[in-house]
Write a sequence for this structure.
């Protein structure tokens, strides 16, 4: 299986282990992500997993779904209502099973496909490898809110290197979506992986650099943490501005969560 497809499957299984024993009441807990419940997060992940799968296997079905989705979503709040309606309000253990059954079917399909083949998406088309990596990133980032509300310290694996690469590759996009020119040079990254390995990216630079835990870099670029709530060492104006607005996902410009608003629930 393509590495990224296996990584997506492994991350999805880690999330499943997190939620599989939750009661229906626990699944209705509001998280730190814009008040979304755990149910709402899983619906969101499942629906866009399906969309990615259809873009690979049934492009016409993907286009029909996307047209329906755009008509049904007029804002961030209405996204939740559309997704709930699309799944007939599925929730709790039934939703968990539906979501898991689908991603277990989906991952091998991506794993067996030509990694370079182009598939459609909301914006420009992308490679199969990029598509499943994007699904890994979104599932990983949204799951952080579930870990947080449950008061569980996440045990990451080195598969988050995929997310580090998305974060680095969207350096220019972060500035563009905010109406700015991307300043050069791109900061040097020196990140410590969950395994303890050190990952270096770019040319060594003492004036523009970011050092620290890879998982915290991933949290910042996916906007699950404010840079002020991490231990990352940020040096230089380019690095400082990047980390203040970092956004590795598509769509309009989004502001990172305010300092102190996304953290592990210590009262669980």
């Amino acid at each position: 299986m393509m590495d990224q497809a296996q990584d997506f499957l492994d991350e999805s299984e880690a999330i499943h282990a997190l939620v599989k024993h939750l009661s229906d009441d626990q699944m209705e807990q509001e998280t730190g992500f814009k008040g979304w419940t755990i149910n709402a997060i899983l619906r969101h992940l499942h629906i866009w997993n399906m969309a990615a799968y259809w873009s690979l296997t049934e492009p016409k079905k993907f286009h029909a779904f996307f047209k329906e989705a755009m008509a049904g979503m007029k804002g961030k709040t209405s996204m939740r209502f559309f997704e709930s309606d699309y799944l007939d309000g599925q929730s709790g253990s039934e939703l968990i099973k539906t979501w898991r059954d689908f991603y277990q079917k989906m991952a091998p399909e991506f794993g067996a496909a030509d990694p370079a083949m182009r598939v459609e998406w909301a914006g420009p088309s992308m490679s199969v490898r990029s598509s499943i990596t994007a699904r890994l990133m979104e599932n990983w980032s949204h799951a952080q809110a579930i870990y947080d509300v449950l008061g569980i310290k996440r045990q990451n694996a080195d598969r988050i290197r995929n997310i580090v690469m998305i974060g680095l590759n969207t350096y220019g996009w972060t500035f563009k979506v905010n109406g700015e020119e991307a300043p050069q040079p791109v900061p040097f990254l020196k990140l410590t992986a969950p395994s303890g390995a050190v990952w270096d990216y770019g040319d060594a630079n003492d004036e523009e650099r970011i050092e620290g835990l890879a998982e915290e870099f991933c949290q910042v670029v996916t906007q699950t943490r404010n840079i002020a709530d991490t231990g990352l060492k940020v040096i230089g104006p380019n690095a400082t501005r990047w980390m203040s607005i970092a956004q590795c996902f598509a769509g309009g410009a989004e502001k990172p969560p305010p300092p102190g608003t996304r953290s592990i629930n210590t009262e669980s």
User: Anything to note?
Assistant: The first strand starts at residue 118 and ends at 119.
